[in-house]
């Protein structure tokens, strides 16, 4: 039980670090919390059995780094919407061009009876 929770804690902590670095940093909180839970379980088992807790401490360190990075990015990342007037004007121009192109298309009337489809 101790080894499996220790491995799960490390995997979740590494996944949290990876997600904290990527633009998906808000998702890093989920594996970080899971890593903390698995790390606590592993830490308690290690203390009961008088085994080394160094790997658990590494897991906690990785979780703290991931949480710090994600929190920093969440607080200080500003999402700005650019000048939408230019985009709206460009959309109108593209729509007008498309309508002009459609109006310029000449469709010849083809009598269906003249075509032999068989």
> What distance lies between the first and last C-alpha atoms, to the nearest angstrom?
74 Å
**Count of alpha and pi helical runs:** 4
Binned, the helix content reads: over 70%
Shape assignment:
elongated
What is the succession of H and E elements?
HHHH
Number of strands: 0
Structure description:
This protein is mainly α. It has a domain at about 1-75. Helix content is about 70%, strand content about 0%. It contains four helices and no strands. It has helices at about 1-20, 30-50, 55-75, 85-105. It starts with a helix and ends in a 14-residue tail after the last helix. About 20% of the residues are buried.
Short description:
With 118 residues, the chain is mainly α. The chain has helices at 2-21, 29-48, 54-76, 84-104. Helix 1 (2-21) runs parallel beside helix 3 (54-76).
SSE blueprint:
Layout: H1 2-21, H2 29-48, H3 54-76, H4 84-104
Notable features of this structure?
single chain; mainly alpha
